[in-house]
Amino acid sequence: MTTHLQDDRERLTTRHERIERRWLGSFSIPFSTVYSNTRVDGTFQLSVPLVLLGYSRDTYSSQRHLRQTSFELSLPSHNQTFLRLFITIEPPLPPLPPLREQFESNEDPKLLRNARLWQESLLEKFKRRQIQATAVDINGKTVFLTRYILPQKPPDEVMLGSQPGSLAAMELTAHFVAMIPSLADAAAFMGTCDIWATTDQFLQMQAGDEEEHAVLLCNYFLHMGKKAWVVLGSGIPEGSTAYVLTEQPEDGSLGDYWLWNATTGEHFHQYSSYCPLQSVGSVFNADNIWANVQRREEPALVTFNFNSTSNWKPFFTAKYPNPGLSSVQRETMQYKPPDGQFAETLQDKFVVRWFWSLPSILMRSFLRVEMVVMKKIEESRRWVTRWNRHCCNELRKILPQLEAKPHSFPVQEHNRQLADILASHNVGIKTLFCLKLSQYIKLD
Hints:
By secondary structure, the chain is of the alpha+beta class. 28% of the residues lie in helices and 21% in strands. The strands form five sheets. Strands 13-12-11-10-14-15-16 form a seven-stranded antiparallel β-sheet. It has a three-stranded antiparallel β-sheet with strand order 5-4-17. Strands 7-9-8 form a three-stranded mixed β-sheet, with no helix packed on it. Strand 12 (253-261) and strand 13 (266-269) form a beta hairpin. It is globular.
């Protein structure tokens, strides 16, 4: 809220205020998540831009809120902004019955029968936990989950400048996987079945849901020599989800466990109270599948000692060992370099002015990114927005650097680049957006 009274004599008798809408962060929960979990209760992290112009963290406040400062680039600290929420449905809605269809399969009938009995016996006791042993592939056939896990090498360009196996290399790899757009199976395939694509199919489609992201990230971590598993459970805001569990050894002993959200690239300590993963149902790798039979299902209260049969029920045991199932993944991945020229054409609306003779539908695809963002910003403001073209050109130089260095952002250098603009112009936009293309399209 700001005042715009220029005459000091009027300040004693007149008060003029203008309320401004400034986007500082967002958080959304689909209704399907609330419906499947019956209630949502916890503290959740807001999606905050990497850079906020004019705001910094109030380090003296116990609430860690944002305070308005001079127009300088400021990075959020590790203490992100969180929101405490409790959502429920009254009266509660009955859950939908699980889909029980028989699909074709190339698996051994004995393996499928044991998988069905193992899953049904566990779901009788733990009805709301995500416990499964098989999945349906893109061809509509039932596949055993362990076949999806195989160490695979990520692109060489992903980890340039980082030591192999280091935390920085893992974060860059997670960032690469997270940049692949998320697409629910209901939007990609006909029907209501949960389809699991292989990593090669996932990269060819250039979109997938939580399972495809988690499997790809897990396979990359395994190639880096890390101990990694895929966790099936329930999270906020996506509902049924898949995370990657890694063990970070310390001095050769058992270390801490981290949970990686493959769709966002974030990682959380097992005992973090801000982890979006709310429930752990089952865990699997290339060797076995373990169902969580502990009393609690929250990650911070779960013991990830898979040798303890009192806490985890394995599918393969000494009496029924793993028959040596081969993987459905390709051992060698083929990567194609990105088309940088097409990306530049897609983001720059001025280039397409030379192509007015193209069909209108093609023109809209070229104009979409920048025009949609500008349109939505103008609609959110109550007065006429006049765009500063010189400022836009300077911000275009900064955005690629935000993408190139997502975890080591050179704030001082960008303060210097924008010093002249911020000193001579009243910049109306105080947020630098660095989002995926799919997130931009959602604005429309």
